[in-house]
Amino acid sequence: MAKIKKLFGGIDLTWTKLIIASVIAGVITAIIALIPTLQHTSFHTITVSFEVWILFGILIIMNSKSNLDSALKCFIFFLISQPLVYLIQVPFTDMGWSIFGYYRYWFIWTLLCFPMGFIGYWMKKDKWWGYLILFPMILLTAESYLGYFSKFQFSMPRYILISAFCAVAMILYPVLIFNNKKIKSVGAFIGGAVVVICSIICLLNPPVYSIMLAYNGDEYSFDDSYSVSLSNQKYGDVSIVYDDEFEEYAIQADFKRSGDVILTIASPSGGKREFDIHIERDTYDISEKN
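and the corresponding structure tokens:
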């Protein structure tokens, strides 16, 4: 723990080190984004959400020498690393330069890094109100934990690493940032309570991915006299329903976990069509079996 504690205030963070770190962070994130096998895993989350970047920001703040130094270093770190993530991907994606459309969202947060870095430096004063400065970062991490723990439930064992990271971060940040024993204890307790509450919320609301898989038409021909089923019911339930909005029969799917399963559409005469379905938390692929 002492070695980890040193990261939160024991580093001589020069501008050279900061710039090198920002380039490394941007390059690694871009490489992860480009590797297809890492999609829908804990590693890919650094490309789309805050939790790991919050850690980077806190490390910069805790190793800065003043409020202004902290603000400038936070701002420059993200100003270099974030556009670099998209720049590296340009030659390798069909989107080309239009991929920078995603950067607008991150650029707003990059601008906010200046005031957040300036205010965040006061955590080093080791006062009780320092935890109030930290708490918004705890809440952002909690939001990530809610999403990724739910994805873990849906896609076990994937997302277990990022779920564990978020849970540990909420508990250990006050322990590693502050020296005051009361702040450490109260902060760790609050972080633990947030983890428990978020976990209970997820466990009481198991994730379900509901989607209309297909509509009656030229490619799929069926009505309510047909039957549909999945080869393994642990993946969820399917049924034929009438969609009033489109005034047509459709196959409604309520998926409960990720994976590969076979959908069978059976006609009243006994004819069958089978389809391979690959399920993810919020997307799917379907193709008819040969």
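(Above: one complete record from the training split.) Residues 147 and 224 are 36 Å apart (CA to CA).
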